[in-house]
Amino acid sequence: GNSVTQMEGPVTLSEEAFLTINCTYTATGYPSLFWYVQYPGEGLQLLLKATKADDKGSNKGFEATYRKETTSFHLEKGSVQVSDSAVYFCALRNTGNQFYFGTGTSLTVIP
Amino acid sequence: DTEVTQTPKHLVMGMTNKKSLKCEQHMGHRAMYWYKQKAKKPPELMFVYSYEKLSINESVPSRFSPECPNSSLLNLHLHALQPEDSALYLCASSQEVIERQETQYFGPGTRLLVL
Q1: Across-strand partners of A92?
Q2: B5 has a chain A CB within 8 A of its CB
Q3: What is the arithmetic mean of pLDDT over B39-56?
Q4: Residue spans of beta strands (DSSP E) within A9-74
Q5: What does the DSSP assignment read for B17-84?
Q6: What's the CA gap between B37 and A9, in Å, rounded?
Q7: Over the stretch B60-69, which tens digit does the pLDDT of each residue have?
Q8: Which of A9, B69, B71, B113 is a plausible cystine mate for A105, CB 3.0–4.6 Å?
């Protein structure tokens, strides 16, 4: 079956710290992988995506590389800002209708 | 333009009320989705419409009734809800339903409180 496992939160970092949020997946075939971000009181926004192995998605200083050998899609950012405080969801989409979301990781960045 | 709009932003209703949530997109997407999200949880899929036809109903209670009047609009009709139905209701759309590369674009959600 298809599933996504994310690291448990919450995560609290100081401004300018390095961020890693781990995400691993289980899927048949060749899924596409996504990171969505949800700011307080808002809907989900696409942060980045990768559609095949070794692809790197990047946006707003965030990066994630699709690693088929380790079935991972870890989210990284070199220097976080207070404005990055949000909940981050890893998701996969396989052939068919559904997205499979991880449980979400809450990030708080303190000045 | 990758905008999905939802109205109302907030809704409070009693258990005997009938209300509707609305969702609109003008990206030419042919797939539209309703999700329910409880606090600190990921979104849960409720319904999928493909080319204005209902293609997935994730065993949602009949007190939730979706409707897709045209390719740009998606409604969710609510009747006789329970307090446990209080949640953030998210609408999303994508170009197609089948293709795995397709991104879903989410609206800001309607925060529903059932008293």
Answers
A1: A33, A100
A2: no
A3: 91
A4: 11-14, 19-21, 23-26, 32-38, 44-50, 56-59, 62-65
A5: -EEEEEEEE-S--SEEEEEEE-TTS--EEEEEEETTEEEEE-S--TTEEEEEEETTEEEEEEES--GG
A6: 18
A7: 999 999 999 9
A8: A9
Q: Which whole number is the average pLDDT over B58-80?
A: 95
Residues of chain B with Cβ-Cβ distance to A46 below 8 Å are 103-105
Please give the structure tokens belonging to residue A103: 């449980």
* Torsion angle of the four alpha carbons A108, A109, B1, B4, in this order, in degrees rounded to the nearest 10: 20
| Least Cα separation, residue A34 to chain B (angstroms) | 8
* A–B CB contacts, 8 A cutoff, strictly below: 60
Length of chain B, in residues: 115
The model's confidence at residue B43, banded by pLDDT at 50, 70 and 90, is very high
Confidence category of residue B97, pLDDT binned at 50, 70, 90:
low
Cβ(B18)–Cβ(B76) below 8 Å: no
